[in-house]
Amino acid sequence: MDEQGCPRCKTTKYRNPSLKLMVNVCGHTLCENCVEMLFVRGSGNCVQCDTPLRKSNFRVQLFEDPTVDKEVEIRKKVLKIYNKRDFDFPSLREYNDYLEQVEDLVYNLTNNVDVENTKLRMEQYQRENRDVIQRNKAKLTREQEELEELLLLEQQSNEQRRLEVLQEEQRQLQAKRKNKQALLDELVRCTCCMAVCMCNDKSSDAISELHYDRCSMSDRQTVSLQPVTKIEDVLYHYRPLQVETYGPPVPELEQLGRLGYLNHVRAAVTQDTAGGYTSALACYRAIQDAFSGLFPLKG
Amino acid sequence: MATRVGFVIAGVRLLRRSFVAVFSTAGDMFHNSSQKKYWIFKSEDEIEHMRNKANQKFRNKALESGKPGVSESVFLQRHEEDVLFRHYERRLLEFCNAFKPTMPKSVVGTALMYFRRFYLSNSVMEYHPRIIMLTCTYLACKVDEFNVSCTQFVGNLVQETPAGQERVLEQILEYELLLIQQLNFHLVVHNPYRPMEGLLIDLKTRYPTLESPESLRKTADDFLTQAAMTDAGLLFSPSQIALTAILNSASRAGLNMESYLTQCLGLKEEKETLSKMYDSMRRMKTLLKKYEPPKLQEVNISKQRLERIHAEFASSSNKRKRGYEEDGHVAKEPRLVEEEWTDEDLI
């Protein structure tokens, strides 16, 4: 996840990707643990550049390259001061010049080029344009507030819509339940063939539900409420498989004992019966084989 | 392999005979078996016709191969083929009877049936019966779940050296797939032994007129063994063969069992069925009477001619597994280097 390691404890980064890196004003990284360690022993100095640091100066690193983070911090500070907008300038050219100035400052501060001079320039600008700065600050805050308000409104409307949908579902469920109850009441009262039909036809429930659903939708649409056609089907009857054996009928397995066949068969030893074997099974097999195909084919 | 659901306990001695009673669903009875559908023929003529066709097929093939000095007189006639077939069938039976461990009767029956079926559509001139007979036995052991390892199997060829046994095993394995193909992959054979047991049980239960059905067992058994050496298995269902065996042995003992058929089997009103059954029984008995064990002289003469044909027409294809070739033409490759094992090596 992160190729760079913490310069102090070096190894921990690779082993624990969830560990966060912190960046400070000098642009060097330290993992959370090392930050704590450093400030246990009083205020510390950066490991690489030895600048005195405060704990509050550490921010969670957002970018892989710590120099980017450093630049982002500096830019934020600079823009707090240099906060003129495009309509403050009479022409585009001057606005661009102004922007270039700002970039120069940021670059200088990030790369430690001519830091003193840059800072002086910044202070000078600040003094000169104090009221402009104030005005712009106020405007900025106002714009931000407006944006926030819009967001809030959108959220609220979303929430309302969701509630409405839920309520609609509830209403439908209740309607369905009421209708089912009404149907049952009707059946109880009316004992004619309708009830018999309903009972036989398993799918009637589904059909009647659909029917009533369509009715409830009728206030929004006009649907022709035709009577639903019932599909009558022949009830399935199990018929056991008939196999032609071309021989005399074989007695049933269960009857063999009663009919006396088992007397002429070796009785099953206890070891055999353990597995579910009975002498009737072997007897049945022998009789089946004896009778199968005994009669000649017709024709 | 014959797949059967549930219950095989080797050594379940159910009836007094030692056979493995396998319980299975009603799905694989004789009446819906491949044997009934494809391997039961209408008449002896039909069977003879098939054998003639096989003979002719080989002749045509041999003539087409364009070898010089080949004439019709080289080939075996049908009756000579028959003599050889019967001879090797007896060798098969002897081999099985001398087999260690003891081979169950159903395995022997299956092997004989395979042998018979194979030579319905193939000629002895093309595939030498001495190898086919061992292949049939080997396959029958597998199908009937009579577990014998291949080394144990060839170990029963007592006259052979271990090296010779190896060679025989190789040959068996070569021909195995061909055999299965020629059987049309119909491997399940229903033998008359279990039906006979069933009929005896039924007689004891429902037919008190016959005092001791057990006394019929020995003669009936002999009848079945003899019937296995005829075409009876290809013409009648195994239960019919079993019934004929029992009725035959009863009539030999001077007992009349007609009332069994009419009463117990419910054929009192079915005059036509009854007459048909008696007809089949008569035909079967005729088949058995017609059977002659082959005479040694004839056998030797035919054997010599057979060896000559095999030596002559063995194609020089390099050694490939039989039955794996697409075009269906399978040839026996010449074994000129090693000495051929002969019939005497068998027993």
UniProtKB/TrEMBL annotation, chain A:
It comes from the Eukaryota. It holds the Pfam family MAT1. Residues 6-50 form the RING-type domain. PROSITE patterns: ZF_RING_1 (PS00518), ZF_RING_2 (PS50089). Its main location: nucleus. InterPro entries: MAT1/Tfb3, MAT1_CAK-anch, MAT1_centre, Znf_RING, Znf_RING/FYVE/PHD, Znf_RING_CS. Signal peptide: none annotated. GO terms for biological process: nucleotide-excision repair; regulation of transcription by RNA polymerase II. GO terms for cellular component: transcription factor TFIIH holo complex. It is found in: Nucleus. The keyword Zinc-finger applies. The keyword Mitochondrion does not apply. Residues 115-186 form a coiled coil. This is CDK-activating kinase assembly factor MAT1.
